[in-house]
Design brief:
Immunoglobulin-like, 33 strands, alpha+beta, Rossmann fold, 16 helices, 5 domains, 29% strand
Length: 750
């Protein structure tokens, strides 16, 4: 409450000034007069004159006593707290983390700012979000609880500037300075901070200035795109800070495999020196397309305080420039000719083809040297050059007769490490080709036993039936567009067993079958990181050479093989589900896996997470597929490393229980990732932001020096009480004027 004495409300500022001026002039003239007169008892004239003048002034102004009681509102002050992963680093050696230091700062500001309205917000990759006392998001949704892997102050300030809420009078920024935006060169430019026309000051509180003794992999990047079979340069930046001596640091790049030790791709040595960084280029070659997980590691120097950033797991999207296929056929047939023509006509395919023109038992009356155009290099192909191929096509080929049996184990390992395999039917394929009971039999998507080998082939003509899975699978989508629901007759098939667990049957025999299931004609399967296809007929050339093919301009054959090879090479067009890990995976924190199945997909999704290098299943579950939009699968906290997510979705709408073809995506989990790649705080950047916005820089223990805005008065109540009634002022003034006149008469001044 405030009290004051003011003139009557009808006087106004002009009247007040005029009245005071006249009174002052009267007193001045009275003083001059008394000075000149030098009369006895002149003091009495001066006293009564002064009293009369003040009484007349009071009668004119009629002063009143006013009591004012106002309601004030504290200014809105925002506390912006950095929520990025770098805040989990220690603020000092053996001390609290930077986030814990930030929590102490927020508590101290809350105790100090009783005269202001404090609101605590956190910033990371997007707009600022409200935080509770524990610096956790107020809205406990899955997205808000996800680890923050960016520190974008500009985006946060832009969201505040465009918000419909009351603008703040001041902003207090609590961070370690390791910001993605603004960059170091733009921190001193106010126009680059996202504040717009707002002139609010930004005060900064650096939570630490301690630089840890740390050697780290600060960056891993490729020079250009990663292309299968082609060398690429992997640039690795290694830095040392905190006075740590880094004279020689070994660097190694490895590719993680499903089971076993990582494959070493390149090694090198770099010399960053003290408080500096250096870059090394490693030449690496990856032979498999799709997402591949690389481990890049350095040898930790002595005294390294933070070892979690000495190893990075990087997911590379490896593309294919050209698909390299090894095509091996046991005899020249119409089917072999059709496939060779197709492969040769595609400019994106490099095909190496070998055709057996005769068997070793053929008696043709000539020596082998006179008959062989090119000797079949089976040993060299399957022991030396096999990894250079993206896929192998075995078409009507007898493994025992042509010396392939001893290499079948190597071929199975090739598929398990990411290669593709297609076995095409014929008199010497599958059982008759001596594949039953071999390591390759376990790779195929169908069962193959000695019993099936005895039965060999079924020569009766039949029309393959499209299964309900085949009617929906994108692998046959191009073929369905050409031929619709019809399919040409096939001249027989190899006899095989039912599909293996997890395999998908797209075409089946209308009569033959084991265990109550129709015999698979076309089946797809996964083995390790590779894929396999079994096609038990040698009559698909009828999609190219027949009256059926002529009616469709011969386009059906290419449509079939485009889908088969596309699925084998993991072309996204032929996948039944798209997998994503939004925001990446942070070790030790639950992660989201996003499934985007094709429209019309129904049933449950079987999700399996395998840890690379161990072959062990880290997590598996079944979740119902969302009918509208993608399906989110909540994965548990995973340790640092590489993982493979595999998803198969249950029955299609109106279909049987056959699974769709499996979809796989490899991904990496890191402890700190980019946020821990450089552990040095950056208080200089925070100081530049404060200077650009006319804010101040305060240490966490100097918050009492924080300049807070003044509160705003929003409403007042006034109570006015006159000092004297107007008649009293007039009576007193008249009496004093009379007394002054009497005094002047007595001293002879009247």
């Amino acid at each position: 409450m405030k009290t004051s004495i003011i003139p009557a409300g009808d006087v106004g500022a002009t009247g007040l000034a005029l009245a005071v001026g006249v009174a002052a002039l009267g007193l001045l003239l009275l003083g001059v007069e008394l000075r000149r007169a030098r009369a006895p008892r002149a003091w009495l004239v001066g006293l009564t004159g002064a009293l009369a003048t003040f009484a007349l002034l009071g009668a004119v102004l009629r002063p009143a006593h006013v009591e004012t009681d106002g309601l004030t509102v504290g200014p809105r002050v925002l506390v912006l707290v950095d929520r990025s992963r770098s805040m989990d680093l220690p603020a000092e050696k053996g001390g609290p983390t930077r986030l814990e230091r930030a929590r102490d700062v927020v508590e101290a500001l809350a105790a100090k700012g009783q005269s202001v309205r404090l609101a605590t917000l956190g910033f990371g990759a997007g707009k600022a979000i409200p935080l509770g006392e524990d610096l956790e998001p107020v809205e406990k949704d899955r997205a808000a609880s996800r680890p923050v892997t960016r520190s974008d102050l500009v985006a946060a300030l832009e969201s505040l500037e465009s918000s419909a809420e009351e603008p703040p009078r001041a902003i207090v920024l609590v961070s370690d300075g390791r910001l993605d935006r603004p960059t170091e060169e733009h921190a001193a430019d106010r126009s680059s901070l996202g504040l717009g026309a707002t002139t609010v000051p930004v005060h900064v509180v650096p939570v630490t200035r301690h630089v840890p003794s740390d050697a780290s992999i600060r960056d891993v990047r490729t020079a250009g795109a990663a292309v299968a079979h082609q060398p690429m340069q992997l640039r690795v930046e290694v830095g040392c800070s905190g006075g740590l001596a880094c004279d020689k640091v070994g660097v190694v790049a490895r590719e993680l495999v499903d089971d076993g030790e990582p494959e070493v791709l390149a090694r090198g040595e770099v010399t960053p020196g003290k408080d500096a960084s250096a870059t090394i280029e490693l030449s690496v070659t990856l032979h498999r397309a799709g997402p591949r997980v690389l481990e890049v590691a350095i040898e930790s120097p002595k005294g390294d305080e933070i070892e979690d950033n000495d190893r990075r797991f990087v997911t590379l999207e490896v593309a294919r420039d050209r698909v390299r296929i090894l095509h091996i056929a046991g005899r020249p047939t119409y089917d072999v000719r059709a496939l060779r023509m197709y492969l040769k006509s595609d400019e994106s395919v490099d095909v190496v083809a070998f055709f057996i023109l005769r068997t070793p038992t053929d008696n043709v009356g000539a020596s082998p040297s006179e008959l062989a155009l090119i000797p079949f290099p089976v040993d060299e192909l399957f022991s030396v050059h096999l990894p250079s191929f993206d896929a192998v096509v075995l078409q009507d080929f007898n493994a025992e007769v042509y010396g392939l049996t001893k290499h079948l184990d190597n071929l199975a390992k090739y598929v398990g490490s990411g290669g593709g395999l297609i076995m095409v039917g014929g008199p010497d394929a599958f059982g008759p080709g001596q594949y039953a009971g071999t390591p390759l039999a376990g790779v195929l998507p169908v069962k193959l036993t000695q019993e099936h080998a005895k039965r060999g082939v079924e020569l009766g003509w039949f029309t393959p039936e499209v299964t309900r899975a085949g009617a929906a699978a994108p692998v046959l989508g191009l073929l369905r567009d050409v031929i619709g629901e019809s399919f040409p007759d096939m001249p027989g098939t190899n006899v095989v067993g039912p599909a293996n667990a997890g395999a998908t049957v797209l075409l089946s025999h209308p009569v033959l079958g084991d265990e109550g299931d129709r015999m698979p004609i076309l089946a797809l399967g996964e083995y390790g990181t590779g894929r396999t296809i079994s096609l038990t007929v040698d009559g698909t050339h009828r999609l190219l050479f027949s009256s059926f093919a002529a009616e469709r301009a011969g386009r059906a054959y290419g449509a079939l093989w485009d889908g088969l090879l596309g699925w084998l090479m993991r072309d996204p067009r032929f996948e039944s589900t798209t997998l994503e890990v939004p925001g990446g995976c942070v070790a030790g924190v639950p992660t989201d896996l996003l499934l985007r199945p094709l429209p019309g997909t129904d049933g449950d999704a079987a999700v399996s997470i395998m840890r690379l290098g161990t072959g062990e299943t880290a997590f598996e579950t079944r979740v119902p597929i969302a009918q509208a939009g993608p399906t989110t699968v909540e994965l548990p906290a995973l340790p640092a490393g590489g993982y493979a997510a595999s998803v198969q979705i249950g029955k299609q709408a109106g279909a049987d229980s056959s699974l769709t073809p499996a979809t796989r995506r490899d991904f990496a989990c890191e402890k700190g990732g980019d946020e821990w790649s450089d552990t040095r705080p950056d208080p200089a950047r925070l100081e530049a932001i404060a200077n650009a916005t006319k804010g101040v820089v305060l240490a966490p223990d100097k918050l009492d020096q924080l300049p807070l805005p003044e509160p705003t008065v929003v409403s007042t109540q006034r109570k006015s009480t006159p000092l004297l009634p107007p008649w009293a002022w007039t009576t007193v003034a008249a009496a004093l004027v009379g007394a002054h006149w009497i005094a002047r008469r007595r001293v002879g001044l009247a």
